[in-house]
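Practice problem: predict the structure.
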Amino acid sequence: MPQVSTPSFSQRLRSAARLYGTLVVSPSPHYVPVVASLGLDFIFIDTEHIPIGREKLAWMCQAYRAVGLPPIVRITSPDPAEACVALDGGAAGVIAPYVETVAEVRGLVGAVKKRPLKGRTLARHLAGEALEPALDNYVEERARERTLIVNIESVPALAALDEILAVDGLDGVLIGPHDLSTSLGVPEDYEHPLYQEACDTIITKARARSLGAGVHAVYPKNRLAHEEHWARLGANFIIHAADIILFAEGLRRDLSELKGRLGDLASGQGPKINI
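Answer:
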């Protein structure tokens, strides 16, 4: 019987399949088997907003890979060196935040898709110089197992969207709601037509190029309705909330109900969590 290869995460992301994940903040080892039992396709680890050091990040990546969940890591800036650090730690893919230019995407392609090429060899190859056939096959085979996603979350990124999406080696885009709404001048107004139109445009254009697309909808109001809308529009990279957000919402809801039943005063809403 011929051996059938399993599609890589980047191949699945570019397909019509919907991939479901959540942001995991806690580095507790007890989380790993629990998260692995939830029917997710990947986990999202965010080092841009969460203080996770290199060693702890590598531990989390290796632990989740061991239970079959590809860890997708958002680095702190669109820096190719940071992308390499995440991949060396065991990340299956990298999300680069606040990308606004084609040059940034090409640099990230060099780090994620062209490893282990470095220095002048990498620069010449990115400029169009062909590699020796054996080396080219070596690089391309390893690129299959690494995923590159960029955050589209500003007006300049929207203006350069067509050119960004055309960069060879990019696998998908992720919308950052807080930053995008702020850049559009409607901070945290996720029902505003400007924000909704921008999200729809990003998703539609990315999927038309067979690139993955998603929105990390961390806000509580109408979260599921928004996720359903974008999924029906074509979004297939679905990051649902975060462990810390779902913990806070669930505990607040249950305590409020319990205090109401017992006639105790309800507590305040507590601080917002922006991720």
